[in-house]
Amino acid sequence: MRGFVRQGLRSTGDSTGALDVDGEDKHIKKDLGDAAVKKAVDRINSLKVATHAETATVIGVPQNVYLEYIKEEILTESNFLELPWTIMLVVSFAVLVLGLLQRDTYFALQDAIQNNVRQSATFAWSGHFGHKNFEQVDSIAQFWSWMRLGLLPLMVQPSWTYSEAVNGTLPSQWLFQGYLSPAPVQNDYLRYAKLLGGIRLRQVVAGTGPCTTPSLIDADQFTAWLQKPCVPSNFAGQTPQAPDAEDFAGFSKVEHLFPDLDSFEQLQQQLRDMEDGCNYAHSMGNMSACRCEWCRAQNPRQPWFDERTVRVEVSFVIYNAQYGVYTYVSINFFLNRAGHMHKLMHEISSPSDPFDLPADRLVPILVAGAIWGSLLLSMLVLEIKDVFRTVRTSRLPFFQAVIHDYFGFWNIVDWAAIASGALAGGFWLRMALQAHNVNILLPDVVRGSLESGSDPESRWMYQASVENLLAAVENLIMTTSVGTVTLTLYPIVVMLRLFKSFQAQPRLAIVTATIKTAVPDLMHFSLVIVCVFGCLFVSSILFFGQDLEEFSTPEHAFRSSCLAVLGHWDWGTAKEIGYFRSAIWLWIFCIILSFVALKMVLAIILDAYAYEKEKASDYKTLVHQASEALRRRRQRRRGERVNLRDVFEAFRKEAKGDIKGMMVNRTLITPDSLMNTVPKMPFNQALRTLSHALERQERVEIGHLTEEGQRREMQKNLEDFQQRMEDVCRDVEAVAGELDYFERLQASGDATYDFYFGEEHLSQDKTSKAWIHKMVSEMSGELNSTFSQGLDKYREWQGRIEGEQTELHEAVTEMQSLVQQHTGLVREMTLAVDRLLEPGHTALLANAGDVKAQPSPGFASDKRGVVEFAGRELGSFMALLAKGNPKNVELLFSGKAAHRSWAWEELLEARTCFLTLRCAKQYMGFISERLYRAQDLLKVEEGDGLNPQKASELSKLLYHANHKMLELDRILQGGSPAVALTGKERQAVLQLRLQRPSSLAEARKLVEQAELFRAQLATDLKAAESEQRLPAEVEAEPLLRWLRSVRVRMALGVGPGPSGGAKPLAPLARTRSSEEQEAIKDLIQEISLSEGIQVVVAGYGICSRTLGTSHSKSDHDIKCIFVHPRDAYFGLKSMATTFKRQFAGAAAGDDVEISGWEARHAMQLLAEDNPAVLGLLLSPIIFLGEEWRARLEDMASKLFSRQRLMYHWYNHGRKNFQSYIKSSEEPLRKRYVHVLRRGFLGGVLESENTCLGVADLDQKFVDVGKLTVYWIALAHVIVACSEA
């Protein structure tokens, strides 16, 4: 581009990244007359990427695309505007129904009756106590006892009742103030209610039928043996429910007890006559005295209640004048053919006048009713208009147009809401009408109760009025029951209509969208669930059906099984069948359905919800959508926009009503043509709607990509990009060849040269080519230099790689000799350690003084092959600790102790108390001493420069000083010594030790830098002393007390002290999980929350726990791959590609180090066959993301480069050898294992092209014949010694 700039041609990039040329540029204006320049500029402009607005203006938008957008916007806006009205519909219905249906009042009345009958209607009296109640009636005799001794005295109340054992003559009635009759008032019930029409008894009788006769017995003989006919019935096989009590069909043998006409004794006699079938009256010779009408008509005499009876209903109606409520009470006794008598008491209440309410309650109800009715009517009008609009615009006949063009799911929901609302209102009106009918019949019953005498005619008239009233009450009860169900269903239908309105707001439509997305998976999974549930459902009937009522029928078993899935299980009843058998079935059921199937259903729904929630995150909020609707409304009023319905109507008129043809027409529409079609439409609105239509079409075609889809799309784009880059490289190589060729054409007379450059009068086309060639020629030098530099760098890299390979071969050879030398030393050390760990030696060492190895060969000398050790008696060691000696203090913070006694563990718990101001000054003294010696070396060598020996001494002095300065900086900042440096600190300090200064100037520069660091630390030390950030000294008394305790316990052989013993300080322990893996997973979750990332794969990296060399002090090296939130990838800020966190003692006391790569960065490393990423993918222990790990492993195994991987392993081995073995005075033995393993992996890759996991090294290497068992054993001996 520099050639263009020198010519004065300016080019820029627009918002889409396309190249743009400034048409107002003076150079372009000057050269536009030149056809070649004009052609080049037109070519550049043709490559620009157009925006949606430019596309709509220049090219246009297909009519079907635009009308689909308009139709969707109209529907969305309509549904959105319906939302507040739908909410108002729900609220007004709730106020109306809850105000009219006084559920709290009904509950109070019915609960009082239930408690009274169940608890107070008792029989089997002993003195003042009745020992049985309603629930304990199990025979015909007990039924009559309960009726005569329990229910009748409770309902009739012949006299005022007193407490037990009251002596003296007391009045049987009381005339209270304001009462017209003394209490108890006739037909009073529960003090505040009134009994209407007495008590009615009726029953359902089964007819005789065939008996089931065994096949091997004669039927006549079997009948003679039974001696009575069979009366089969399937009624009440199971416990009856409320609907059974509301069945009023099939009754006979109706008898009435009228407390307002008969005395209490007459009512009791009537019950006795019903029980004995008028036998007592017959024995007295006076059948007219029998008060049971049905029994008196039987010949021969029969009791009212016998073995053919299926159901007995004792019913009565209560009217509570306090609330104005009728209550129908039905006490039922069901006799099944197993001989059991089921009891069921059921009450239904209904108001006598629903609108007889106080004004403060009635007015809100009437207002809510008016609003609800108006909204329901408006819904009906709108739907009818929509039907006629659809029929008018359709070319199909009426019914076909309604079915094909009008009806949709949401239209059906609207009509269902209208129909259910109309049904609810109709049932409510019918219930009010039925209550009015009861009110009409009530005066006849009241009049008969007050005026009827003992003559049969008045009694018959009273009984007829009572039967009419009871029939009207039964109709009222049935209407109330059905109306309640209808009213209950209406809010559910309206809820669906709410979801229709929610469709207009994507954030509100997440629920319905989630269901739509999850339906395919749920349908497939439901087939599995139904099959499994069906098998367990059948097994439950077979297993429990004969013992438990809950599983005796398919209906009961289905309900009980569904409850068991949700965790509701009656173990107290089931265990009676058998603990072991019931427990086995329950565990199988819970594991398969509750623990697995139900969780999988939730997982499917949550996965769909996460997908839909991610889609909805990019859409407008409810507030934004409401403000946009308000903005459109204001613009329409100001004439700045046209209603979208008018736009659609304009196109419909243009298509002459053919909506289907209009919606498939692909004619291109531009803003100008749109303004011609739709009058009064502003240009801005036309352009905006066309652009939005293109955006919608693009969004529909692309769809919403899931995370997996995005990865596949990125992978495809990367592959396309790589292919294009290869094409570009080939083109550049071709251009470079052409440039090189033309660079050599410098002599006139050459045919090719003259053809391109020799003629002066050329055509426009050739002039354009000449102009372009001139521009390209000016770029050729830069391109050639770039390619030359790249080739030179590549050659340099190749030479460096060859040198490093040679060096690695030499290092491996040297390492083999070192391994042979160390083998003997390891064997001798192992024997020495075994002797030292014997009891006698241990005791000797515990009481010995300081010990030390032979003198060191010298400061900064080569100590390879030398084993140094030193020891101190505990008392002298504690004295040095109290003085703040850095070497001894750091020993407490070192994590590489090979052996720890209980005394050392106790001392470690109090190690932070030794980080005092005195200790900080000791660090400063050590640093000053090392820097003084370094400056002294510079003075000695000032004239002659540095020789290798002095340079080695200087590097070690700087190494010591910088290491201690870093540790002192941590202490002054409130931290603890790290001892083993990591990261950049470790690299910087090791560089001082390994890269010795080559000149005096370099050495002085390093010393000056160290002096500046020391001066800064001296300032920080003074500040810490003045601010008292560190304690001045160690408290001697606790340490001496602990030291005496340790010596006493060692002498007695007691061992560690009890909890809370003589320890100098109690540390703050980190809370951790009991299991290591759970603790590590918790840490991963903690990092995800704190860093704001999502970890997709996590597991062990290449470490001792995957290499098989872990020991008691090994830490957990966790590697992971993570992603940032989606928005971060589209932001301007750079994102972190790695992180590293350390947790001390977080997993069962072991340290945990967690580091990770960002997903794109990890894929780049994986593309380069990075061993660390491969180590994670091939790790035997994965904590998170097994599915992703398996996919990446499969991809890596197909795409990895054996040559690159060998090169990586070579570099790892070389760096480990140089950094930790060759350049270290006391290399750790496990470093040899690390180097050996890398070399072994290289050998495997030479013989087999496979992506090998480090943990599989030993067996795999033996299999390919590259490693003998001796070498494997040697590697493990080295590891074992490093553990010891």
UniProtKB/TrEMBL annotation:
Q: What is its main location?
A: membrane
Show the stretches that span the lipid bilayer: 83-101, 316-335, 362-382, 403-429, 476-499, 525-545, 584-610
- Domain Polycystin cation channel PKD1/PKD2 spans what residues? 486-610
Q: Describe its membrane topology.
A: Multi-pass membrane protein
Can you say where in the cell this protein is located?
A: Membrane
What's a Pfam family this protein contains? Answer: PKD_channel
The record's GO CC annotations read: membrane
The alphabetical list of record keywords is:
Membrane, Transmembrane, Transmembrane helix
Q: Which PANTHER family match?
A: AT14535P-RELATED, POLYCYSTIN FAMILY MEMBER
This protein's name: Polycystin cation channel PKD1/PKD2 domain-containing protein
